[in-house]
Amino acid sequence: MSIDFETELNDAQREAVQTTEGPVLVIAGAGSGKTRTIVYRLAHLVESGIDPAQILLLTFTKKAAQEMLARAEVILGRPLTGTSGGTFHSFAYATLRRNAADIGFNNGFTLMDRADSENICKEVKDVFKLGKGDRSYPRKSTLLDMITKSRNKELPIEIIMEREAYHLSPYLDDINEISNGYAQFKREHALMDYDDLLFLLDQLLEENAPLRNQLQTRYRYIMVDEYQDTNLVQARIVKHLAGSKGNVMAVGDDAQSIYAFRGANIANILDFPKIFEGTKIIRLEKNYRSVQPILDLTNEILAGAATKFDKHLYSDLKSDKLPEVVYPLSDQSQARLVVDQILTLQRKYMLHEIAVLFRAGYQSFPLEVALTRIGIDYQKFGGIRFHEAAHVKDVLSYLRLVLNPHDLLAWQRAMDHIKGVGPKTVAKIYKAMHSGDSKYLTTITKKHEDLRALFNELNTLRGLTPKPSMLLERIMSFYQPILIEKYPDDYPKRQAGLEQLSQIAVSYSDMEQFLGDLSLNGDPEDEKRKENSVVLSTVHSAKGLEWKAVIIIDLVEDRFPSRKAMQRAEDLEEERRLMYVACTRAKDCLKLFVPSSVYNRASGMSDPTLPSPFILELPNETFERLNESYGGGMEKRTRPETHPQLGTTRQQTHTESNTDTKNKKNTVKLGFCKHKIFGKGKIIAQPEPNKFKINFPGFGIKTIIGDYIEMI
DNA sequence: CTGCGCGCGATTTTT
DNA sequence: TCGCGCGCAG
């Protein structure tokens, strides 16, 4: 049975699928069948006789990789044995683990999560005696933010600070010092953070030519999804893996770049044809996801961008229903109205075909309460993660100690429940263990009975077969009394969580893999998409997914766009792309909620809001407006009124970020140019010495750095 | 040194 | 409202 590529794919998709040799860049608009293209390409490769083990698929989430592999297997009608698929981080983790000794980790290493990293920052700060008594000293999370941002963007901390945290400049020297101390601490304790995975893999591939060659031979076909969200080190890794004339396909959409805060570099996708000579560029422009009225609205969102990421998606899917903009009186009544909407939509769609999206995790709290009260099940993406829960970390700390006795953080956690033992004593014990000072250890274990019990338990664990499920079972009974003592209010719930952990452990035979997956994959509950529950998700976590009906809440100034993202013009641009990503998730039905007031934690009162600029910009004919009447119902405005405060508010709030209008004055230069990805275009402005605004037919107006264009 | 209580400040997004 | 960090008492 052969696959019918003729009828299943459009011309551009088919070209992407069948161009297997040499570098390929696929520019794929939202909903243009990007996943479909990757899936069919996988199938095509295997069908034409390629060994599935020679294929590497790098995606942004583990979920995306699994979904693509599974779909390819369905099309093929047989399993894809040996194909590597996953995130950059998980691929890096697996590769580094196999070659740990080559990068100076002779006894393996432990992967830390965010909380671990923050605690080390604090530890280093204390050891260096920095910021004692300074009330306004940066918090540990801020310290780590600066450090990790500097690494991801590969710029000195000073530059990062100049650009986005000018108020911290008095602490620059301190933060640099802490940054160095942090790096040293990790080395000394065989620890890695998320950034290390990428940088050490890059280093390993750079230095170890035999390994690099081996991997280049093994992965003859590489596909990278969401290429616009890769950062510099990820791009280098791809280059190393592909080699100079490798068969590598990058897929992405510049309009959906929403990870700049993590160092995502739009230049990667623009540079791709430069780095890989002879790159074939394929554009997917037809949208298969959303009905035309939704696309009309999302096109308007992009049209307002200063950089005009104007894709003008079109669709054959018709609908006579416009997207709705709903104005509830408050965020409380917003929650109630959203629940009403869900109940109505439920007549037409399954619950899991409906999603509520928001900018930040906490924004769904009122809705979660309302859903629970009425008995609608929901599944939340992008909140507190399962493995970050304190009791799970407690239990995992024992496992970590079995694996890596140098893991100071795990020691601190494991000894936390012992009365009379604090950080200082832990440090002493740790030091004694590693210098072989058994005398101190004997004294201290005599003093604390619980400590002796802990040491005995760990010794026993080390003697057992290192199978996650077996060790966990023992740990759970040891931990049981500690759990009850530590969390008297809700230990049954936590106990249930731990049992879930045991369940997951059963499918693992390898300890390091188990611990690594837990840190890299987030909530294992997320893996299974529950059948009968509404999806609540941050926009970031919703990326790449789609639903029949999408509701976006809290579309007000300071929430979406986030208040934190209003410092610089580029920040607002990223918020706009985020809004674009959110709206393009919807297939049939899109509802935008703009509460007139929101609860303010600081004052404990409701504050009036201003609608999000992204809502104010929308032309009236692209949506239908509904107000909450004071009786609590919904009121249709037959003649759409102009938005409140349109114009004045916008001018006040965004004058500085609106570089667009300012630059119109100096529109002087005209001419034509050529761009590797967008083709021929007309130059319409030069906002900065090395930046041009160019109108590309079919792509709209874009701002491009001079290096990427060729004058004609 | 540890454990507790008080007061202040903060609140994005993820691997 | 909550969590963090500091200061104080045992």
TrEMBL record:
Residues 292-544 form the UvrD-like helicase C-terminal domain. It comes from the Bacteria. It catalyses: Couples ATP hydrolysis with the unwinding of duplex DNA by translocating in the 3'-5' direction; ATP + H2O = ADP + phosphate + H(+). Keywords: ATP-binding, Helicase, Hydrolase, Isomerase, Nucleotide-binding. Residues 7-291 form the UvrD-like helicase ATP-binding domain. Its EC number is 5.6.2.4. Residues 631-663 are annotated as: Disordered. Residues 645-656 have a biased composition (Polar residues). ATP binds at residues 28-35. One of its GO terms (biological process) is recombinational repair. GO terms for cellular component: cytosol. GO terms for molecular function: 3'-5' DNA helicase activity; ATP binding; ATP hydrolysis activity; DNA binding. InterPro entries: DExx_box_DNA_helicase_dom_sf (IPR013986), DNA_helicase_UvrD-like_C (IPR014017), DNA_helicase_UvrD/REP (IPR000212), P-loop_NTPase (IPR027417), UvrD-like_ATP-bd (IPR014016). Transmembrane segments: none annotated. Belongs to the helicase family. UvrD subfamily. This is DNA 3'-5' helicase.
